[in-house]
Amino acid sequence: MVVFQNKIIYMPSIPPFSRRERIEDYEAQCKPVRWQEKRIKAADGVDIALALASLNGSQEESSKGAAHVVIVYFQGNGGALPPRLPSLSLVLKALQCDVPSSTTCTIVALSYRGFWTSRGRPSERGIARDAAAAIGYATSQLPRPSGQPITLVLWGQSIGAGVATSAAATLASVEPRDKDGRGPSQTLAPRASGLLLETPFVSVRAMLTAIYPQKWLPYRYLGPFLRSHWDSRVAFHQIGQSFLPKPKVLILQAANDELVPSSQSVELEDICRDLKIDVKRTVVSGALHTDVAAKSQGRRPIVDFLRSFG
Fold it and tell me: In what order do the strands lie in the sheet with 103-111?
């Protein structure tokens, strides 16, 4: 188990043929949202796939002026991006009805290395590089109308919530610099304004203890040998120590989650409150681990949260 732990934690080929999924096969379910695949390179040169889609709001103009809300989405530990696109499209369509016409909402969904059409093999260090590359693309290379400032929101589902908090912590630890790299700047370094954590857990190690509480089982003792940690407790403490404004946090807990105990979401909420981070936890009735965003009662708090940035 120690040797093959990455194959247990990351399951890009489950269900079977996941790596052969195509965006085109889900076009009808996503309309009028149109997704496109984009290729980028992580810092170590690994070729990574993104799925991108944008919509403009339809409400009357707001006094806030033009805005661009960019949501970088981090999936769970199994399967490919295309089957997730219909649920993400429902969120974009709902946002279109709720935000001003001067606001553009874009989702940049990351396919981790080894998943879908991305190259490489998944690992915590590698996926962290993929996340940094996706955020870099979303904040510096994504086409946008001139004059639209970017508001960055990180959305992670299941293990993706750990990817999101770790990425936010990394952004919070980087001191902004001016164009010449000589002094501080509040404009050139991206930061996460929001963290949307869907069915999250505190860490991989915490999950082992929560799922296998029996002391006679060996799994709970694998903590020292883990190569993937995705420790949101550590990440939130790094965020809490940053001089940058702290992100707003929404935790979505599935009432009928068959994988993650409810205590994990409660603990994350307590961690945020202790660190004076603005947090809200919502329990989505009737939801299982992977269908929060597909249910209207789960989609509504997502849309409300994202709308607050537009």
Answer: 36-41, 47-56, 103-111, 67-74, 150-157, 192-198, 248-254, 279-284
